[in-house]
Amino acid sequence: MRPRGRAHNEARVRAFRGIAPRCDDRGMDAPNRSAPAFLFDLDGTLVDSVYQHVIAWRDALEEVGIDLPVWKIHRRIGMSGGLFLNQLAREVEGVLDPEVIAALPGLHTDAFIRRFDSVRPLPGAGELLATLSAHDVPWAIATSGPERYARRSLEVLGLPAETPLITRDQVRYAKPDPDLFLTAAERIGADVTASVVVGDSVWDLLAARRARALGIGLLSGGYGREELVFSGAYRVYEDPRDLLAHLDEVGVRRPL
Amino acid sequence: MRPRGRAHNEARVRAFRGIAPRCDDRGMDAPNRSAPAFLFDLDGTLVDSVYQHVIAWRDALEEVGIDLPVWKIHRRIGMSGGLFLNQLAREVEGVLDPEVIAALPGLHTDAFIRRFDSVRPLPGAGELLATLSAHDVPWAIATSGPERYARRSLEVLGLPAETPLITRDQVRYAKPDPDLFLTAAERIGADVTASVVVGDSVWDLLAARRARALGIGLLSGGYGREELVFSGAYRVYEDPRDLLAHLDEVGVRRPL
């Protein structure tokens, strides 16, 4: 803590005297002047797959005799499967068999894969990523889902296999823990505190805050605008196409 | 307008003098002292069927080659099918064939009926209606859907065939026009301005305001709380069970 505190105090003194900050003056809370990197969620943010996930979870839960209202499933898409099941176990009346809980993620994945043929890119997703690349803005994808179907979404988006992709399998904790976005930033050599997290769910935005990144919400996963703002989004757009049309608002310079 | 104006002025004078209002003093804008009647939406409010409707519309649109992001379908469930298709025709790039538009409602209904087996009552729905009946609170159901599948939802809820049910077929305009709720109030002999509309969608709440009823929003259709508040809900609950637990807040007296 000592060195950080001293650097921080030095920075305050320099700021007070009107002296420009030195590069190494930046403490944890210092504003960041570099152009942001973009860390994207996948389902509901780049591909239109949230409602297929919802119905797949509903099918999986019904297979084991659990009747959970569908909107409550919807509101948990994108969070860590383990946390989802923990919450579920507390909420469902009666005791859940540990074997049943262990079987659910597999049943959900199977049910989702069966519906995968109907998954499409969200409007503007490919164009947005291509535009960032064309302007040398680093970006990566970080998803609470397993690699098994995240790879298939990359194909739907027409992205190459070497696209920076962090999946559930690569971190200890999924969203709303910050690990996925922290690892994604590291993978592309970006400072996470200078990064923008783009996601459709409350879990993306909570993870963004814990990672000390800025969060941009997209409505394309079916959350309401205010839910995303109240979860910490500093800006909300409809979908990737709408974000692309407003990149100038969020730190991407594209000279005419 | 004359008689209404005179009654209204008389009521103001009586109120100014501290005289209790007479029964016939009530103008359109006068507060209403009678216990409210309840006018319920059906899908997403009493039965857990919104996501099946969403997927059914997606299937129907895909059958005719229209690729609409699923969240945009979700946000239109519960509105008049005709208005939905008008909006769609404006939004979809390229010209929509009138024959295609005419075929869509039937395709949607077929796709919904195919998924109907997975429709369940929402938690507390039956108990809420039984409690209102037990306390002599009049209630009716008013849905933008056709009688064909609304009747099936009554069966899911275990309600008798003579339940007051207003469907799309019985009015000229569906939600967000007020006709369904106005007709529902008439059917049960209730004053709509003394009624409470209970619905899960923005369209229910807009129709409630146009009917000069009070709107209660339920989260069980997948809208966010703030979307419902900003659409005019004077109170929002999770689902029928949550409303039942809070009936005391909205004008239903249940002495212990």
Written overview of the protein:
The structure is a homodimer of 256-residue chains. Chain A has helices at 2-16, 50-63, 70-74, 81-91, 98-114, 125-134, 147-156, 179-187, 202-210, 225-230, 240-245; strands at 37-40, 47-48, 120-121, 139-142, 165-166, 195-199, 214-218, 233-237. The N and C termini of chain A lie far apart (45 Å). The first copy, chain A, is built from eleven helices and eight strands. In chain A, helix 2 packs across helix 5. The interface between A and B is medium-sized, with 28 and 28 residues.
Describe what is shown at a glance.
Chain A is built from 11 helices and 8 strands. With 256 residues, the first copy, chain A, is an alpha/beta fold. Chain A is globular, with a radius of gyration of 20 Å.
Key descriptive features of the protein:
homodimer, 256 residues, 6-stranded parallel sheet, two-stranded antiparallel ribbon, 8 strands, 11% strand, disordered N terminus
Fraction in helix of chain A: 40-55%
Oligomer: homodimer
Q: Describe the largest sheet of chain A.
A: 6 strands, parallel
Helix/strand class of chain A: alpha/beta
Task: Outline the secondary-structure elements.
Two copies of one chain form a homodimer.
Chain A: H1 2-16, E1 37-40, E2 47-48, H2 50-63, H3 70-74, H4 81-91, H5 98-114, E3 120-121, H6 125-134, E4 139-142, H7 147-156, E5 165-166, H8 179-187, E6 195-199, H9 202-210, E7 214-218, H10 225-230, E8 233-237, H11 240-245
Parallel strand pairs in A: 1-4, 1-6, 4-5, 6-7, 7-8
Antiparallel strand pairs in A: 2-3
